[in-house]
Amino acid sequence: MTDSPTPQPSRRRIRVLVVDDSALVRKAIADALAQDPDLEVVGTAPDPYVAREKIARLAPDVLTLDLEMPRMDGLTFLRILMEHHPLPVVVVSSLTQEGSQAAVDAIEAGAVEVLAKPDGTMSLGAVADKLAWHVKAAAEAGRHLRRPVEPSAEPVAIPRPSAFPVLDRQLIVIGASTGGVEALRQLLPRFPQGLPPIAIVQHISAHFSRAVAARLDGLSGIAVREAGHHEPLRPGECVIAPGDYHLAVEHRPDGFRTRLLQTPPLHHCRPAVDVLFRSAAEAAGAQVVAALLTGMGSDGALGMQAIRAAGGKTLAEDESSCVVYGMPKAAIELGVIDRVVPLRQMADAIIAAASERT
Questions:
Q1: pLDDT at residue 147 is higher than 50
Q2: DSSP single-letter state for residue 65
Q3: Looking at the predicted structure, is the pLDDT value of residue 124 above 80?
Q4: Class at the top of the CATH hierarchy for domain 171-355
Q5: Candidates 203, 207, 246, 267; catalytic one
């Protein structure tokens, strides 16, 4: 496609540069994004060297970036970009095992989101809304790229024993979206062993959630895995919703069990935080501790309302540490949050809330 000059519209659109070595994929992504009136694809690039020149000339707000490219791989380019010219980046990666692992590396290197690369089985309509949503989230996150970032958590759990016996129906639930994978990398290694069961919804594409869960498991002192259907969820265990499935929990005589659902998306998302939080309110009532982390949109606010009505404890991440302050802000404005804390204090706040007896 032809690079466009800097426009001067009355309402400024989000300017996107598409970087991918495949001409077909570049066109598919550009055509998908062009359907959204808030977005403008100002150019495309087949490799990082061309991208570097076009970043300087076209001043895009957001990049979409392939990871497997000639001359320089996307991950190396991303690390250089984040060091010298930080920009919001949405990684569009292949669906292979190697692609999934590289996508997790890309998040750790500074990418805002990871999405599956369009292929012959995906129609333009199937990818357009999702691509546009994540590009807009990345643009929102771009406002914070130059703010100092908290250091990543050490890959060792804090050596702190649980100070309380876990009650029968105690449950911890966490929701996150844009910036959430990095937030979870900082949060989960701070949890001691012996906590109540933990269930997490992180907005993430199918095929990447298992790699994210595996990476978090390696960093944490608690067991972390991708959730399966109708599995037991025990104290000291943490499950993460698989991409493209809602995660719910239910309580049986033998304890908590997971449920995976493919009911319609909520807030453009499947998994959705509201599905998990509402099920937690029903399954555990006043014994729930819920935390809402960084993310675009309002997912989780109504679920927090249900947990608060059931007597559970509700926490939200403070704006100062959020990559995108949308989801916590929505719940705070709804008046359903007990305590607002920055990310570095969230583990202690969750532990303290779970230690309180209702």
A1: no
A2: E
A3: no
A4: alpha beta
A5: 203
Q: For this structure, is 203 an active site residue? A: yes
Mark whether 267 is an active-site residue: no
Name the residue among 100, 105, 136, 98 with its Cα closest to residue 115: 100
Q: Which residues contact 18 (CB under 8 A, 6 or more apart)?
A: 26, 29, 30, 33, 41, 43, 44, 45, 63, 64
Q: Output the pLDDT for position 51.
A: 96
Start and end residues for every CATH 3.40.50.180 domain found in the chain: 171-355
Q: Report cis status (omega within 30 of 0) of the bond before 271.
A: yes
What's the pTM value of the predicted model, to 2 decimals? 0.87
The backbone region for 300, taken as left when phi is positive above 0, alpha when psi lies in -120 to 50, beta otherwise, is left
Which of 36, 47, 66, 177 is labelled catalytic? 177
pLDDT of 347 > 60? The answer is yes
Alpha-carbon span 298 to 293, nearest angstrom = 11
In tens, the pLDDT along 235-286 reads: 999 999 999 999 999 999 999 999 999 999 998 889 999 999 999 999 999 9
For residue 312, is pLDDT > 50?
yes
Of 114, 17, 126, the C-alpha closest to 67 is 114
In a 3-state reduction of DSSP, which class is residue 153? coil
| Separation between Cα atoms, residue 97 and residue 77, nearest integer Å | 21
d(CA 73, CA 13): 29
For the chain, give the number of residues: 358
Residue of 255, 260, 265, 221 whose CA lies nearest to 240:
260
H helix intervals, the chain: 23-34, 48-58, 74-84, 97-109, 124-141, 180-187, 209-219, 273-284, 301-309, 326-333, 343-355
At 14 the three-state DSSP class reads strand
Which fold would CATH assign to domain 14-144?
Answer: Rossmann fold (3.40.50)
User: Catalytic annotation on 207?
Assistant: no
Q: Do the beta carbons of residue 44 and residue 30 sit within 8 Å?
A: yes
Tokens 């890959």 sit on residue: 155
